[in-house]
C-alpha cells in the first residue's frame, strides 16, 4: 500500500464508519423490530384455525421467501410509482427489509412454538387458562428462548442485507463507499475497507449473541 492509498484509507474510514453508525445500524434495528412483530403475528396466524388468514399469511411467506430481496426492493421503489404509489428511499428500505425479516422470522417463531411439548398446553388448560392465556404466559416465553439463537443469526444477516438498499439510492454505508470509489478510483481498496467495517459490526454482534445465549443456558439450567 503506497502513501496515496494510506491517505485514502485515513480520509474515508471514519466517514464510512459514521455512515454505518448513523444509517446502517439504525436501519437494521428499525427493520428487525418491525419484522419481528410481523413474524410473530404471521406465525400465530399460520398456527391458528382461521382458514383465510392462514392462506394469506402462507402466501406472503411463500412470495417473500421465493423471490430475491433485491427484486422486492426494486418493485417497492421503482415499480410502485407506476401504480401511483411513490415512496422515499428510506421508507422503501424499511418496508422491503421488514417484510423480508417478517417472512423468514415467522418460520423461526412458528418452529419454536411447535417445539414446545403438547403437555405444556394441557397443563395450562388444566389450570383453567384459555388458549390465549396459555400462549401468552406459558408457550411464548419458552418459544422465545428457543428462537433467540436463530433470530440472532437473522439479525446479523440483516446488517449485511442493508447494503442492498444502496440500489434504491438510500445513502447508507455501502452507498457511501460507492461514492468514494467513483471519486478516488480505488475500488479494491475502498470495498475491502467497507467490508472490514461490516465484519467489525457483525463480529461485535456475534459476541453479544454468544453472551445472550450463555445467559439463557444458565437461566434454563436453573
Automatic annotation (TrEMBL):
PANTHER family: L-CYSTINE TRANSPORT SYSTEM PERMEASE PROTEIN TCYL, MEMBRANE COMPONENT OF AMINO ACID ABC TRANSPORTER. InterPro entries: AA_ABC_transptr_permease_3TM (IPR010065), ArtM/GltK/GlnP/TcyL/YhdX-like (IPR043429), MetI-like (IPR000515), MetI-like_sf (IPR035906). One of its GO terms (molecular function) is L-cystine transmembrane transporter activity. The keyword Membrane applies. It is a multi-pass membrane protein. This is Cystine transport system permease protein. The keyword NADP does not apply. The chain crosses the membrane at residues 20-45, 57-80, 86-105, 188-208. Residues 21-209 form the ABC transmembrane type-1 domain. GO terms for cellular component: ATP-binding cassette (ABC) transporter complex. Pfam families: BPD_transp_1. The lineage of its organism: Bacteria, Bacillati, Bacillota, Bacilli, Bacillales. Keywords: Amino-acid transport, Cell membrane, Membrane, Transmembrane, Transmembrane helix, Transport. Belongs to the binding-protein-dependent transport system permease family.
Amino acid at each position: 500500500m503506497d502513501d496515496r492509498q494510506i491517505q485514502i484509507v485515513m480520509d474515508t474510514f471514519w466517514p464510512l464508519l459514521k455512515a454505518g453508525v448513523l444509517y446502517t445500524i439504525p436501519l437494521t434495528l428499525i427493520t428487525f423490530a418491525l419484522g419481528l412483530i410481523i413474524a410473530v403475528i404471521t406465525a400465530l396466524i399460520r398456527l391458528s384455525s382461521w382458514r383465510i388468514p392462514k392462506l394469506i399469511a402462507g402466501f406472503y411467506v411463500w412470495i417473500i421467501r421465493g423471490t430475491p430481496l433485491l427484486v422486492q426492493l426494486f418493485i417497492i421503489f421503482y415499480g410502485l410509482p407506476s401504480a401511483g404509489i411513490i415512496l422515499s428511499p428510506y421508507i422503501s428500505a424499511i418496508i422491503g427489509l421488514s417484510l423480508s425479516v417478517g417472512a423468514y422470522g415467522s418460520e423461526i417463531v412458528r418452529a419454536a412454538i411447535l417445539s414446545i411439548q403438547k403437555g405444556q398446553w394441557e397443563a395450562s388448560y388444566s389450570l383453567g387458562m384459555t388458549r390465549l392465556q396459555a400462549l401468552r404466559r406459558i408457550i411464548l416465553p419458552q418459544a422465545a428462548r428457543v428462537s433467540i439463537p436463530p433470530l440472532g443469526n437473522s439479525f446479523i444477516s440483516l446488517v449485511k442485507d442493508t447494503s442492498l438498499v444502496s440500489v434504491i439510492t438510500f445513502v447508507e454505508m455501502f452507498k457511501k463507499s460507492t461514492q468514494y470509489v467513483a471519486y478516488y478510483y480505488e475500488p479494491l481498496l475502498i470495498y475491502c475497507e467497507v467490508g472490514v467495517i461490516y465484519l467489525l459490526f457483525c463480529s461485535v454482534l456475534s459476541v453479544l449473541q454468544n453472551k445472550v445465549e450463555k445467559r439463557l443456558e444458565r437461566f434454563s439450567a436453573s
